[in-house]
Amino acid sequence: MKKLILGISLVVLFVAGCSNDSTDGGKDSSKKENVDVTIWATNINVPVLEKAAELYKEDHPEFNLNVEEMNNDDIRSKMTAGLQSAGQGLPDGALLVDDGITGYVTNFSDTFANITELGFDEHEDQFPQYKMDSVSYEGDMYAIPFDAGPVGVFYRADLFEEAGVNAEDIKTWNDYFEAGEKIKEVTGANMLSFDSNDSTVYTILMSQQGKGYFEQDGTSNMDSEVSIETASVFSEMAERDIIFRAPGWNAWVASLVDSQTATAITGAWLIGTLEQQVPDQSGNWAVMPLPSFEGSDSRSANQGGSSFSIFESSDNKEELYDFLVFFATSTEVQELAMEGGLFPSYLPVYESDLFAEPVEYFNNEPVWEFFAEEMTKIPSVFYTEHDSLGRDEAVKVQAEVLEGTDPEQSVSDANGRIENRIN
Amino acid sequence: MIQKQIKKIVQYVLLIIFFIISVFPFYWMFVGSTNHTSKMFTNPPTLTVGSQLMENLTNLNNSVGIWRVLFNSLFVSLTYVVLALAVCTLAAYALSKFEFKGRNAIFITFLLSMMIPYQATLIPLFQLFSELGLLNTYFALIAPQLCYPFAIFLMRQNFLAFPTALIEAARIDGAGELKIFFSIVLPSMKPALAATAIFLFMMQWNNFMWPLVVLSSQDMYTFPVALSSLIGFSIIDYGQVMVGISIATVPIIIFFLVLQKHFIAGMLGSAVK
Question: Which pLDDT score is estimated for A86?
Answer without folding.
Answer: 80
